[in-house]
Amino acid sequence: MFIYVVKAGDSLFSVASKYQVNMDSIRITNGLKIPNIVPGQDLLIPTNVYIVQPGDSLFTIGQMALVPVETIKLYNGLHSNNLSIGMRLYLPPRTKYRAANFSYLTPTTPARDIELINQFADSNSYYGIFEYHISSDGTLSPLYLHSINTLSRQKQVAPIAVISNLTETGFSSAVARSIISNPTIRDQALNNIYNIVKNNNFAGVNIDFELLKDYDAADYVTFIRMVRNRLSPEGYTTSVALPAKTDDTTPWTKGYDYKGIGAAADFVFLMAYDFHHGGGEPGPVAPIKEVRQTIQYAKNHMNANKIILGVPNYGYDWAMARDGSVISARAIAVGDAVNTAMTNQVPIQYSNQYHQAHFEYWDALGNRHIIWFEDSRSRAQKLQLVVDYKIKGIGIWQLGLAFPQSIYLVDHFLSKRTVI
């Protein structure tokens, strides 16, 4: 397998012919709904043989195949870096890092849920079932699970109940504050969380309280510790979804004590995305520098084996006014972003500074749009961080958002650690 970046004049047929790969296999691997690829688009080429092209070097081939040059030389018996056009090189598999991966799954229909559970079971150790809403009195909303937990366990994926302070108007600081600061309500919430986990055959809980205030930090650590103390004796895990934090000075992250939460929880899910989001200006959703800083900050405050790096299966589409201001913005799945570029026949750019893809297009009303999103190249960068920092694994928000290449890349870098 290697990543090919489409050049001007390329067609799906010409790319397949160049590398002697079946065209349909490229289409299926990359989830292409239409054939008219565009310059700058990245394609996973499903083959372990690379045919050297004009201008290639071992360095560029290694980058495309995500394999060290010395490994390619070793497996191909090469004693120098000299290549000849048309030479066939075997692309050896990477030595995989053993990881416990966590991906969020939102129940929709039984057929769709079963499809997702089966499709991603070999690359995930946990499914975070999103989600139970918690109210200010500690009660939890119902969630129709049908056979999700049973099937997940059959596939050796631990089903995890996600508990959030999400309301109809967004995440509520007031709801979270009510629960973590009032001992009576907190105890009621603990009982309800325990009963949800035990009565529905979950393997644990994932607490996702967002928009906490700075004065919530200590109470939140206490709450997480109490959840774990309640669940741990019966073998259930306690995990926490954390906003990306790179320092101790950013006001909106002061409610999250990484050191305290890291000590209280079994593991954490770093939401290392939305550095640019629908409520702000266009820009990279998960820029590599900030993602790296988030991991490093977390490692400075907790054990690496407690850290799961959360990555997005989406980007944002910003509609722009003539004066450069944002009219509106919406989240868009990676697959839909690529389809938008193909439909509008606009080239895709890639920022080597941020390691994120982006492009612009004009809609039927004459509005300019800017899309930034995660692609195969940027996902590979994140997976390499998991290996380099030796953390617990990678986590995906969320499996229902189409990113066809992601599953192949995860399998290329990581092997599954079974936890149940």
From TrEMBL:
Domain annotation LysM: ranges:
2-45, 48-91
Q: Which UniProt keywords are listed? A: Glycosidase, Hydrolase
Question: What InterPro entries does the annotation carry?
Answer: CFLE_GH18, Chitinase_II/V-like_cat, Chitinase_insertion_sf, GH, Glyco_hydro18_cat, LysM, LysM_dom_sf
Q: Give me any GO biological process, just one.
A: carbohydrate metabolic process
The molecular function terms of the Gene Ontology recorded here are: chitin binding; hydrolase activity, acting on glycosyl bonds; oligosaccharide binding
What's the short name of a Pfam family annotated to this entry?
Glyco_hydro_18
**Which SMART domains does this one have?**
Glyco_18 (SM00636), LysM (SM00257)
Domain GH18 as annotated: residue spans: 99-420
Provide GO CC annotations from the record.
endomembrane system
Which CDD domains does the annotation name?
A: GH18_CFLE_spore_hydrolase, LysM
Q: Which domain of life is it from?
A: Bacteria
Full protein name: Sporulation protein
